[in-house]
Amino acid sequence: MFDNVRRVFGHSIVYGSADIAIQAVNFLLIPIYTRVLSPAEYGALAILLVFEAFLKPLQRAGLGDSFVRFFYDYPDEDNRRTLAGTVVISLLGVNAVLLIVLLLAAPQLAVMVLGTADYTLAVSLLVINGSMAAFFVVPFSLLRIQEKSTRLASVTFARSLGTVLTRLVLVVGLRLGVVGIMLADVVVTVILLVALSGVTRSATAWRASKVMAAGTFRFGGPQVLFAFLHQTMAMSDRFFLAIYLPLEQVGVYLIGSSIASLIKLYPVAFKTAWMPFAFGRMDREGAPALFAKMATYAFGVLVFSTLGLAVLAEGVVTLMTPSSFHRAIEVVPILVLGMAVQTTTNFIATSVEVAKRTYLYPASTLAAAVLTVTGHLILIPRFGMLGAAFAVGSGQVLQAVSLGFFAQRVYHIPYEWARLSKTVAVALLLYVLIITTTGGPGLGVLAFRLLLLATFPLGLLAVRFFRPAELADIRRLPGILGARSGRVA
Questions:
Q1: Which residues fall within 8 angstroms of residue 436, CB to CB, at 6 or more apart?
Q2: Who's near 106: CB < 8 A, 6+ residues apart?
């Protein structure tokens, strides 16, 4: 069991390290961006990101997850090359149509989403970048399947770092504003596609199979609808805020949402490493029990991450942004909790994807999307940004509960509910302790809260979360790591 944990979390750390490093760079750039872009421009950027989030599922057509899942159904190398070719040719067809239609409609789309045609070029660049980025599906998926986590993390880091540097030149240096942000994305995507072309060519046969195409679209199609509903829950807040409030407040909300979104780094990295691992073991005896134990550990890390982000947000926002953005502090804890609940679906997805029941994604998300939109219409006029945050959180809770209910019926995983509950209880008690005993901005308060956070593992020990065999593995860990370090040296 310890080897499985080390393997999955080791890859997760590598996958996540690039994202965490670049998020740290982006975070350190917030003081620069918030002084170069006005709150109104930040609001326009927020709306463009909403448009991008809804467009991306169409451009990718759910074929990324389809490729990873069906790869394990075809052990023959020639069939796998045909599968890759089928995916690439399908993406070419889908994006050719989307690109033509959306570029012709760019002026109308700019007016529709931002109320002015001044952002037509930004919309066009966003569409072009999304269509090109869709073709990362095959090389990125192959690196995941082959467990080449270090190489994939290096590519991810290079892409993100290149984007940051290019944005600095175009936005800060040349003062191109929102257009500079979109143009930077296009430049970096072109460079990376050329760099990864060798990976794609070596794994792809330029032919398509109707049977494979039908299977991948049948698997991926429901995920497109799910992505639309999910984005309705996750990003429609900015759209409705823009209706009821000035763009300046939308920009402030975006800062809060951006900080809260850091909670997604870990679950995304975990799922990237986890799904190939799970697909490779789904037919083995005892697989559901293995998945349950791994979920316990993964959930523990998620809870600790959520706690940390919720209690550190106030100091971070105050230290990193000018006073015009400080109201973002109000919404961060609510958004963090809602996003944390929603990201548990990355673990629940094991049942859905092993059983190939992806229709459960949109089926379980529809009611949650309706609840979220209804919440925006009722709460934003009364409570402003806080209303938007509560509406998002309520929808995310309903979506996670609904998907979990249906997923257990297609592939049952015996989750360790008692241990999961202990993790949540320790986090809640620690949150109340930190919030009631410390408060206000400043490095001193931030440092003291970090010190209190470090007691989380002690709380787990106190409630007997760890089993004897796990404690034995933990005690052996320093020796194992030391021995490996010695061999490397």
A1: none
A2: 120, 123, 124, 127
* Tokens encoding 21: 């490093």
Element (H, E) at 147: none
Q: Are 413 and 295 in contact (CB under 8 A)?
A: yes
Phi first, then psi: give them for residue 208, nearest 5 degrees.
Answer: -125, 150
Residue 197 within any structural domain of the chain:
yes
CB atoms within 10 A of CB 235: 19
Q: Which residue has the tokens 């090389």?
A: 139
Residue of 244, 311, 248 whose CA lies nearest to 34: 248
Q: What is the mean pLDDT of residues 260-266?
A: 77
Instruction: Work out the pLDDT band at 69, boundaries 50, 70, 90.
Output: confident
Task: Kindly tell me if the per-residue pLDDT of 489 is higher than 60.
Answer: no
Q: How far is CA 74 from CA 82, 217, 218, 272, 353, in A?
A: 10, 17, 17, 20, 16
- CA–CA distance, 406 with 60 (Å, rounded to integer): 26
3-state secondary structure of 255: helix
Q: How many Cβ atoms are within 10 Å of 385's Cβ, its own excluded?
A: 23
What length does the chain have?
A: 489
Q: Is residue 433 part of a domain?
A: no
Say if residues 32 and 181 touch (Cβ distance below 8 Å): no
In a domain, 489, yes or no: no
Model pLDDT for residues 302-342, shown as the tens digit of each residue? 899 899 888 887 777 777 777 777 888 888 888 888 888 88
Between CA 279 and CA 259 the distance in angstroms is 33
Domain count, the chain: 1
Confidence of residue 270 (pLDDT cuts 50, 70, 90): confident
Q: Are 299 and 420 in contact (CB under 8 A)?
A: yes
Look up the domain containing 50 and give its range.
2-415
- Tens digits of residue pLDDT in 387-416: 999 998 899 899 889 989 999 999 999 999
For 407-440, the pLDDT digits (tens) are 999 999 999 999 999 999 999 999 999 888 876 6
210 assigned to some structural domain: yes
Helix ranges (H only) for 62-147 are: 63-71, 77-104, 106-114, 120-133, 137-145
